[in-house]
Amino acid sequence: MTDSLPETVLRVEDLKVHFPITSGVIVRRQVGTVKAVDGVSFAVGRGETLGLVGESGCGKSTTGLAVLRMLDITSGKVEFEGEDISSFDRARMRPIRRKMQMVYQDPYGSLNPRMKVADIVGEPLVVHGMADDQDKYRARVAELLKMVGLLPDMAERYPHEFSGGQRQRIGIARALALEPKLLICDEPVSALDVSIQAQVVNLFMELQERLDLTYIFIAHDLSVVRHISDRIAVMYLGRIVEVATRDQLYKNPLHPYTQALLAAVPIADPELEAARGQQIISGEIPSAMRPPPGCRFHTRCPKVMEVCKSLDPPMRTLDDGRAVACHLHGA
Amino acid sequence: MTQPLLSVRNLSTRFRTERGTVRAVDSVSFDVAAGETLAIVGESGSGKSVTALSILRLIPDPPGKIETGEILFDGQDLLKLDDAGIRAIRGNRIAMIFQEPMSSLNPALTVGMQVGEPINLHRRSPWAAALDKAAELLGKVRISDGKSRLNSYPHQYSGGMRQRVMIAMALACQPQLIIADEPTTALDVTVQAQILALLKELTREANSAMILITHDLGVVARYADRVVVMYGGRIVETATARELYKSPRHPYTLGLMASVPRLDGDTERPLVPIDGQPPDLATLPPGCAFAPRCRQATDRCHSERPPLVESVPHHFSACFFHDRLAA
């Protein structure tokens, strides 16, 4: 993974997405700011899967939406295939959007119930003016359905006729319609039944190999992320606290938050669980309106030191290529 | 063997739907001993939640109805009680914790009123005493400054805090049995670990039994003593947690374990999904409900329903081939 560096598809530098909080009915004034994403940097190489993990409110979904420019970026840079797209307007984003697509969490809410599957999957082609030749268009829709394991005769049906797993396949087919390079998958399996999740995870992995896709896989399920990702970035309160390859991160997590996250995940083995000491951190993620001073994790950190309360630890890259933002490491 | 605290015998619950009568729970029997944690595992539509609601007779009727069965709690059949009788049990000797704390708490009442209510109602404590007790309970579930917190409303709490309030309510009358239906599914992983550890600790302290309903095999492994696996409204396998994970004896259980990635799993090995989808209860096949998705299914499985049999002592499986499956 790190020995031969693949071509970088996406590079994000010091990305910030802040939302104003306003108050007042007649005269609206800003009373605060939610720093949903507050200085995030990472890169994704071609054909790679970067897992983006963290708890609700950590900014992982906002990061995904900002990369796609579906949210306004407050500051920072988003570079796609070498081009800085952070200040592109709608017209200039249009050709970029073809190459970056999103797969959403909720396969019930993200498909229009009044549209036939063929129209849902083919809509991106229509929008981008690639549906003039009816025969070609139909063939492409059929091909997309086949690619995600659906039957061609399903094209004439409506979303309610499908199960959750099948709906997620429809969402994936739609995302693939324009032959994107990068897929941002936001919790794509968490709404599915346990026995169905593996079907969709395997589909993602097959498609990646076949189509040379690059993934950002946003999820809170650390076991699923471990299975699918090459590298993982752990987010906490608008920041990345640790980025490492899968084996580095899961075998030897360095940031106390990563350690706490992994310790919190129960393993499906009662004997192992009985032997495993449980270090459960207390408290909940603080408000992104008033993040704690210093290290944002210091209010919950079991290894907190004096310095952590006032000094925000910078992200440091270690000798083995991983990066961590903690005063315990690399100072 | 001493008499179990709860003994569910041959419970069947059906619902009338537009598509005909659906048997959400079909001839389910299991026991819960005093102080033990029993997990009921299953996917959506497996009947795990309906089983829990049936125990407390919380099935809306119509469209639902408990058709047959006995629910013996401390030797008393809950299905034979009148309304006043079951109300005296609910929230008192058997308490329930639901998945979504926001929709289970009353948004218009203070937290103190809600935690104090079961004490006021069942223990006939005057309100002042009930509120004192409520403050003490909030401390028990690690909500600091319980006394002043009594006056806040649920929306002022985070998801994890609300679930702590639910636990405080459930513990208020020191129930002998707590039924927790996916108590942490809506919560973040570190908060989930906190809540489950707290629940386990407090039930142990009070020597309460717990029925933990979940779809998460990791949660089962960490917290349960025994496990019931449900599929299509029926029990397909039951054993102690250790035995079940070591040598599962039903293809569905085996399939689940192979399809779920583990934090310590081999990442080079692909996940083996279970083909197909969870069953539609309105159109269950005549034979084994899992047969359409089972790779080992024979003609017999499609036509005849396998009974739940004791495969090895205390380990039951509803598969004709339970002997051949054990590892």
Spell out the helices and strands of chain B N to C: EEEHEEHEHHHHHEHEHEEHHHEEH
Major sheet details of chain A: 8 strands, mixed
The average pLDDT score of chain A comes to 91
Q: Low-confidence runs of chain A (pLDDT<50, min 5 residues)? A: none
Structural class of chain A: alpha/beta
What does this structure look like?
The complex is a heterodimer of chains A (331) and B (327). Chain A is of the alpha/beta class and 331 residues long. Chain A has helices at 60-67, 90-97, 117-127, 134-147, 164-176, 194-211, 222-228, 246-251, 256-264, 270-275, and strands at 8-23, 29-45, 49-53, 75-80, 83-84, 100-103, 182-186, 214-219, 231-236, 239-245, 316-317, 323-324. In chain A, the strands form two sheets. Chain A has an eight-stranded mixed sheet, with helices on both faces. In chain A, strands 2-1-4-5 form a four-stranded antiparallel sheet. The longest helix of chain A has 18 residues, at 194-211. Chain B is of the alpha/beta class and 327 residues long. Chain B has a domain at 6-85 and 216-263 and 270-326: Rossmann fold (3-Layer(aba) Sandwich). Chain B contains 13 helices and twelve strands. Chain B has helices at residues 48-55, 83-89, 101-104, 111-122, 127-140, 146-149, 159-171, 189-206, 217-223, 241-246, 251-259, 299-303, 322-325, and strands spanning 6-17, 20-32, 37-41, 64-73, 76-77, 94-97, 177-181, 209-214, 226-231, 234-240, 309-312, 315-317. Chain B has an eight-stranded mixed sheet, sandwiched between helices. In chain B, α7 (159-171) packs parallel to α8 (189-206). Chain B is globular. The two termini of chain B are 29 Å apart. Chains A and B meet through α6, α7, α9 and α10 of A and α8, α9, α10 and α11 of B.
